[in-house]
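Work Package 4 report. The design task specified in the project plan requires that, given a folded chain encoded as structure tokens, an amino acid be chosen for each position. We show below one input record used in the internal validation round.
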């Protein structure tokens, strides 16, 4: 089996790929996740995923490299990871009681053949109305600094959401259905 490299230090992304039974190596990309104001949300997520995959792909001459980036979008505002707890609280207050989108861009690069693909998946979520106390308690209890939108749906944050439309795993960090479909085209056998 070809070496599979995850260009991300996200423990959630690693766990998701391991759910698929993939043996992989994790290599942090060290890409500055600065948002480009000229790009729309989907293009932004795809561009960051491409940058991460390319940065790691240069180090491995014969591997399948997967890069990903997740953003939270409400209206025209894009949320990446919060700068600090004040920023995390600001994000959660903006999302409070509203429908928003989670967009994950992913890039797969075959470093041996040069074949590559970049795509993105959108999942919509309705956050229930939270009290100020719940928001405050949540950001004190959970580590939110590494999570787009300042929440994790795969923890106690799960109780915040009334409705999800789309791929649940996309919210966690990787759209498993779309990703596995593309990995198959790269010769990666899941089943």
């Amino acid at each position: 089996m070809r070496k599979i490299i995850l260009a991300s230090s996200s423990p959630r992304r690693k766990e998701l790929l391991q759910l698929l039974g993939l043996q992989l190596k994790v290599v942090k990309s060290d890409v500055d996740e600065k948002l480009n104001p000229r790009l729309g949300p989907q293009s932004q997520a795809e561009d960051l995923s491409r940058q991460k995959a390319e940065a790691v792909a240069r180090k491995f001459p014969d591997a399948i490299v997967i890069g990903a980036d997740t953003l939270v979008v409400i209206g025209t505002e894009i949320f990446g990871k919060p700068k600090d707890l004040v920023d995390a609280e600001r994000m959660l207050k903006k999302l409070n009681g509203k429908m928003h989108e989670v967009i994950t861009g992913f890039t797969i690069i075959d470093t041996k053949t040069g074949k590559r693909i970049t795509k993105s998946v959108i999942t919509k979520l309705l956050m229930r109305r939270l009290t100020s106390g719940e928001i405050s308690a949540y950001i004190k209890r959970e580590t939110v600094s590494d999570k787009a939108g300042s929440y994790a749906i795969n923890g106690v944050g799960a109780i915040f959401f009334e409705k999800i439309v789309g791929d649940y795993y996309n919210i966690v960090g990787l759209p498993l259905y779309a990703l596995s479909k593309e990995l198959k085209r790269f010769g990666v056998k899941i089943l």
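Residues 3-185 form a domain with the Maf protein fold (CATH 3.90.950.10). Validation will be extended to a larger panel in the next phase.
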